[in-house]
DNA sequence: AGCACGCCGACT
DNA sequence: GTCGGCGTGCTC
């Protein structure tokens, strides 16, 4: 008796190979089993997807025999395979690409024997797990949210302001689950690696170190394999991780938490461009696991999808659980708008803001100033001939980093020492234009050089951004310095606005947030509002500290548009008002969440070649059923049109129906593969489809 | 994606 | 005369 086994292997999307490759086997291989199979001249890891019994008689084609079956490991279950299959289909990628990316990288290199040995070693330690009860009393809002969570099916949108105690709700929900069903598993996702350690600590404290494993790209390969195996075997109760964790194999999954669900990092931006938040909701429904999406500023998609009260059928499918109040007495910080139109021209820091920071210094409190631009200045320019520090490989300026006197391209990494004189005309007068965090740090240093702290010492200014935290452990040590009070004024990018609890900060300032108000990206206001709300949440987290100081926590915003509805809503901490306004605009303009989008992008040596491919692709789509219900916009260059000498162009597709858009995309895929072999496809370096794109 | 094959410039 | 550049093509 012989079998044909269909195996998902890592076939790249461009290869136009089928979703699965078929191999011969003398025995049936269980779907979901990990196998090693020959592919070309090498042997690769694959996941058995289906087994077909071959009729006796001559085989149509001679199949290569399957290699080793890694049967020390339980096969990936059907629910997991369904999730992978759905993600592959929805995001227009191959099955194998998603499946293999979802497995720990080390599994690819391990032989069957090595894996068996590893598993034997693992089994020896026995994890006893005890849930330590929590002494903290719940607020009325938390109690209400939890009881509705227990009573209803969800999915739930936990709309809780910063400091309202969302994490405690997650912990209780997990605790209740494990009390009811000790062998159950919960998946908890956070947007960034930086945020895992403190959450991990809280979960381990509550549920025991052995019950919790982490899964994110900052871990070493052996660590990731160990965590993955613990999840897959069911030994781990709680898996805590970043977006990749949505694909963790968890046979007893009953609960999924997506914290800060609005965060853009849940959308993968390269390779398979999936949204871990959306997949989490899909997975929850498929596996009957309850899903909680938590945020103080939900994505407009989730907000639109949620209904405010029980039994209210208006709105969407999500149950909205609101926790508007901060725990304890800490009031939300007062928002102060500085009208920059009334300031002297070229003001960087208004006098009123400087005064407020000075008062904080005098009282021994901390301030945080953020600016979304790292480096010293975004451009270096020649006053004489107009030369600017363009990157020779990208359509962008190289940023001036004063610290090491370099010009660095933030897109391709091209770095050179700053020229002494203008490379065009030899003029020595080349000057930085605009400012980044480095220059802001320097500027603040000058402004406060003469100021003394209460004990007579000099004011201490620190900066946290991607440059200052490049080294391993640098972020942790810099955060620790802020926590221990070694810093008076902290300067940084949005990195400092997310998640970290700075208890002694009583002032947060956004220096120049206006860029996002009128940018071409329709999601920019949503991101700005969320960022400012989160930043405001950094101030005065420690209510006891703030009131003991007699201080008021404040969020300062310098803007040329103080009447902008975004700021008006922010001033009142009124996310619902902001969301309503944005949703009305989106509805009127026929944009998400009222329409569904996809991008086709092409990269080539020249813009013409890239656009010609998109043009041909557009024409090819005419023939597809449903294409009349999909608006196809003309091909345009990307905002940054050239990166590392590659020209990039894209076209947008939009439809009121997700299903129709999906159907068109699915039908398009083979046509796009064919196009590559036509004259219009020659010279295209790569093309890719981005479903539900985040930035367009 | 890998990893081959395949046809043109600077080296022992 | 070879070593090696990366252009094109294939992988059940």
From TrEMBL:
The keyword Transferase does not apply. InterPro entries: DEAD/DEAH_box_helicase_dom (IPR011545), Helicase_ATP-bd (IPR014001), Helicase_C-like (IPR001650), P-loop_NTPase (IPR027417), PriA (IPR005259), PriA_3primeBD (IPR041222), PriA_3primeBD_sf (IPR042115), PriA_C (IPR041236). Zn(2+) 2 binds at residues 391, 394, 409, 412. Its cofactor is Zn(2+). HAMAP family: PriA (MF_00983). The gene is priA. Binds 2 zinc ions per subunit. It holds the Pfam family Zn_ribbon_PriA. Its EC number is 5.6.2.4. Signal peptide: none annotated. This is Replication restart protein PriA. It catalyses: ATP + H2O = ADP + phosphate + H(+); Couples ATP hydrolysis with the unwinding of duplex DNA by translocating in the 3'-5' direction. It is an enzyme of class 5 (isomerase). Zn(2+) 1 binds at residues 382, 385, 422, 425. Residues 147-316 form the Helicase ATP-binding domain. It comes from the Bacteria. Keywords: ATP-binding, DNA replication, DNA-binding, Helicase, Hydrolase, Isomerase, Metal-binding, Nucleotide-binding, Primosome, Zinc. Component of the replication restart primosome. NCBIfam families: priA. Belongs to the helicase family. PriA subfamily. PROSITE patterns: HELICASE_ATP_BIND_1. Initiates the restart of stalled replication forks, which reloads the replicative helicase on sites other than the origin of replication. Recognizes and binds to abandoned replication forks and remodels them to uncover a helicase loading site. Promotes assembly of the primosome at these replication forks.
